[in-house]
Amino acid sequence: RKLSEAKEVADFVQEISTPETPIAIDDAAAYTIVAYTAGFDGMILPLQKSFVTVIENPALVASYVCLAKRNNPMHNYTVLNVFNLMLMREQKNFRMQRVFESENWIIYSIR
Fold first, then answer.
1. DSSP character for 46?
2. Residues 6+ positions from 73 with CB-CB distance below 8 Å
3. Where are the beta strands (DSSP E) in the chain?
4. Ordered mean pLDDT values, 10 residues apiece, the chain (111 residues)
5. Residues 70/57, Cβ–Cβ less than 8 Å
């Protein structure tokens, strides 16, 4: 069941992410999602220098962000979770729109 969820999320990530509209995703927590994608184009991952910038202010670099929901067992293994994004949103005052949601993951468009 979880593998099919990861595949569903990965398919959506591949539909929306391009180098011009990148998605921030933490492969430490979302490794199954990243593994299902065909490549890393359009993804901002922790190994990239810009990932720290994304954590501080996602709207500067990313068009989308993939977050672990509170009920997700990987929620505490990444700063890309719903709790931290809400704190960042309040501090930086950017707008988010939910574009995808599954049992354990949520993807927001960021402006």
1. T
2. 104
3. 23-24, 43-44, 64-68, 96-101, 105-110
4. 82 96 91 92 90 82 91 84 77 86 94 79
5. no
**pTM check: above 0.85:** yes
Nearest partner of 40 among 13, 8, 3, judged by Cα: 13
Instruction: Let me know: does 101 contact 94? Beta carbons within 8 Å.
Output: no
Report how far apart, in Å, the C-alpha atoms of 2 and of each of 29, 34, 46, 107 are. Answer: 13, 14, 23, 17
Identity of the residue numbered 84: N
Asked whether the beta carbons of 32 and 83 are under 8 A apart, the reply is no
Please choose, from the candidates 57, 63, 26, the residue with its C-alpha nearest in 3D space to the C-alpha of residue 42.
Answer: 63
Question: One-letter amino acid identity for 73?
Answer: P
Q: Which residues are 100's β-sheet partners?
A: 107
Place of tokens 């990530």: 13
The string of DSSP codes covering 71-95 is TSTTGGG-S-BHHHHHHHHHHHT--
